[in-house]
Amino acid sequence: EHKKEMALRIGVDVGGTNTDAVLMSENRVIAVIKKNTSPDVTQGIVEAIRELLPSAQEKSKIGAVMVGTTHFINAVVQRKHLTPVAVLRLAKPSTLAMPPMCDWPADLRSIVKGYTAILPGGYEFDGREISGLDKAAVESACEEIASLGLSEVVLSSCFSPVNVEQEDRVAEWIRQCFEAKNHKASVTLSHEIGHLGLLERENAAILNAALRPLARRTIAAFRRALAVDLAMPACPLYLSQNDGTIMHAGRAEQYPIHTFASGATNSMRGAAFLSGLQDAIVVDIGGGTTHVGGLHHGVPPWRGARGGALG
């Protein structure tokens, strides 16, 4: 029964120049639509799906809609729709010579940097504490963040993937402090985003936080389009990830960084499917950029936080 429900799927790839949509049954392509990408990305998706629907005969046969979009990476490249972020790093007295965002381009840093602080905490590579946590320092930082009106907070810590306890505990303190001040903010934890390297993990978490409000607005628009414009309110919505797999839209709202490099991997996975080749070099020539990548056993090789999260 579940297999029958998922028999028909719609995939939409939104590029800078064209929006492509396909209707598939299992591994068979039933219909293909190509349209110019509209300034309103959501409207372009709606129009592409609407043209596919007659080939499905009944909307109830469509088990999922999957969207791949360059919307989030374009926001960073174009320096648009990014939200200022507060960054709290647990590491003091270590890392003082490398403050958060120290390696960012100046123009991007000026847009995203709302507040930064290095507080006591963090771990050595073997799990030993660098220093104990300072709740008063955390609360003082939260007061400053609230006074600045910042709604996105990143919490990073040295070697937090080795031990997540400090990040989890301080995140709870932050939520309690903001709740007491009636200040609404969401917290991105670096250990949920990347691997051991502090700057790479922290940078990916900062980008994630800067993109979160845009992701919420964009995915809410996708959901409204499915429910209202296309009359498909019960149809599950997924977004493609950096590794070529998909994730539920609810998770993409929280972790938009995981969709950051999906444009290139969409092309590579599509090339593997259409060619039948499992190991190959793929060249994707778009309207503004050209991507070159490799396939190994039909999927792009995983390169960790640097390649997976930051593209």
Describe this protein with a few key phrases.
311 residues; alpha/beta; four-stranded parallel beta sheet; 10 helices; 12 strands; 39% helix
Please give a structural write-up.
There is one protein chain. With 311 residues, this protein is of the alpha/beta class. 39% of the residues lie in helices and 25% in strands. It has ten helices and twelve strands. The strands form three sheets. Strands 3-2-1-4-9-10 form a six-stranded mixed β-sheet. Helix 2 (41-56) crosses helix 7 (198-229) and helix 5 packs across helix 6.
SSE layout and pairings?
Layout: H1 2-5, E1 8-14, E2 18-25, E3 28-36, H2 41-56, E4 62-69, H3 71-77, E5 85-92, H4 106-112, E6 113-120, H5 135-148, E7 152-157, H6 165-180, E8 186-189, H7 198-229, E9 237-240, E10 246-248, H8 249-254, H9 262-275, E11 280-285, E12 290-295, H10 304-309
Parallel strand pairs: 1-4, 4-9, 5-6, 5-7, 7-8
Antiparallel strand pairs: 1-2, 2-3, 9-10, 11-12
Helix pairs in contact: 2-7, 5-6
Short summary:
With 311 residues, the protein is an alpha/beta fold.
CA radius of gyration is: 21 Å
Morphology call: elongated
The helix-strand sequence is HEEEHEHEHEHEHEHEEHHEEH
Query: Which class of secondary structure composition applies to the elements?
Result: alpha/beta
Mean pLDDT over the residues: 89
Low-pLDDT ranges:
1-5, 304-311
Can you summarize the main beta sheet?
6 strands, mixed
Calculate the terminal CA-CA distance, rounded to whole Å: 38 Å
Count the beta strands: 12
Strand order of the largest sheet: 3-2-1-4-9-10
Percentage of residues in helical conformation: 25-40%
The DSSP helix count reads: 10
- What portion of residues belong to β-strands? 15-25%
